[in-house]
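Whiteboard transcription, Tuesday session. T.W. wrote the C-alpha cells on the left side:
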C-alpha cells in the first residue's frame, strides 16, 4: 500500500445478514446510519464464498469478527472483538470451543450479484450464520449453475426459542445475467486476491474428508465461462417464453417476477 498503489476497498455495496427472529434480511446504510430491512423475496447470482466468524460478545458488549478463509482446515482464523480485549488465533477445529465460549459462530461469507425485478444488479455480501447457515447447507443445488431465490422461510423451535430458517430455491440463469455476474466476479477476485495476499494464513495442508468439504460449503468450481443463450428464459425482462421440452433448466422453478 502506498500513494501510487493504494489498497483497494471491498467492492461490495451492501453487507447483509439474516434476522432469524423476524424472518427478513437487513443491512446497515452508512449514509442514513440506520439498519434497512430487505423483505422477501430476494434473488441473487452466486459468485464466491469464504468462511469467517461473527457473533456477539456479552463480556465486552460488542460484536465479534475475524478474517475470511477458504479452507478452515488449512488457514489460520484470527478472531477478535470490536472493542478489543479478546483474541483467538488458530485452525478452526482447534479453536472452535473458544470461539463458542466467546459468543462467536461459524459463518459463510457469500459474495453475490443481487438481482430481481426493478433491481439494479450490484455486488453484495451475505453473512450466513445460525439459521441462515443451516438453510444454506440444506440447499440441494449448486449455486454456480442457477439464480438463487429466497421467497419464504420455515418456522423452527429450539427449546423456548422460535426462529425462522430461510428456504433457498434454484431458478433459471440466463446467459446475459451469467455474463454480467462473470464481469462482476472479476472485480471481486481482484479484491480477494489482494486481501488474501496480505494475510499469511497458510499452515501445513491437511486432507479434508467428504463431510468436511460439505460442511465448509466448498464447490469444485472452474472459472466462469460465457455460455450460449438457451432458447428461452423465465426471466421476463430478458426473454419471451417459449415451450421447449428439452430445455436443460426445465427442472428448476420459474422466477415469479
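and on the right, the sequence the group agreed on:
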Amino acid at each position: 500500500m502506498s500513494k501510487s498503489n493504494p489498497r483497494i476497498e471491498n467492492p461490495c455495496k451492501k453487507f447483509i445478514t439474516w434476522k432469524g427472529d423476524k424472518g427478513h434480511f437487513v443491512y446497515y446504510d452508512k449514509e442514513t446510519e440506520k439498519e434497512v430491512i430487505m423483505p422477501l423475496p430476494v434473488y441473487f447470482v452466486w459468485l464466491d464464498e469464504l468462511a469467517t466468524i461473527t457473533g456477539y460478545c456479552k463480556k465486552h458488549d460488542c460484536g465479534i469478527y475475524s478474517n475470511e478463509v477458504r479452507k478452515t482446515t488449512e488457514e489460520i482464523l484470527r478472531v477478535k472483538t470490536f472493542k478489543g480485549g479478546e483474541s483467538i488465533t488458530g485452525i478452526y477445529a482447534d479453536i472452535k470451543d473458544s470461539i463458542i465460549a466467546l459468543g462467536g459462530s461459524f459463518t459463510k461469507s457469500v459474495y453475490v450479484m443481487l438481482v430481481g425485478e426493478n433491481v439494479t444488479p450490484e455486488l453484495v455480501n451475505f453473512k450466513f450464520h445460525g439459521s441462515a447457515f443451516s438453510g444454506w447447507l440444506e440447499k440441494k443445488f449448486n449455486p454456480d449453475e442457477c439464480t438463487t431465490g429466497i421467497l419464504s422461510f420455515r418456522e423452527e423451535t429450539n427449546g423456548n426459542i422460535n426462529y425462522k430458517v430461510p428456504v433457498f430455491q434454484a431458478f433459471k440463469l440466463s446467459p446475459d445475467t451469467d455474463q454480467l455476474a462473470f464481469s462482476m466476479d472479476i472485480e471481486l477476485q481482484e479484491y480477494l486476491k489482494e486481501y488474501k495476499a496480505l494475510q499469511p494464513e497458510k499452515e501445513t495442508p491437511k486432507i479434508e474428508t467428504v463431510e468436511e468439504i460439505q460442511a465448509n460449503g466448498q464447490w469444485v468450481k472452474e472459472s466462469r465461462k460465457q455460455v450460449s443463450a438457451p432458447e428461452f428464459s423465465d426471466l421476463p425482462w430478458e426473454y419471451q417464453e417459449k415451450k421447449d421440452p428439452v430445455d436443460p433448466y426445465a427442472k428448476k422453478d420459474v422466477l415469479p417476477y
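Someone added at the bottom: Residues 203-233, 235-251 have pLDDT under 50 and may be disordered.
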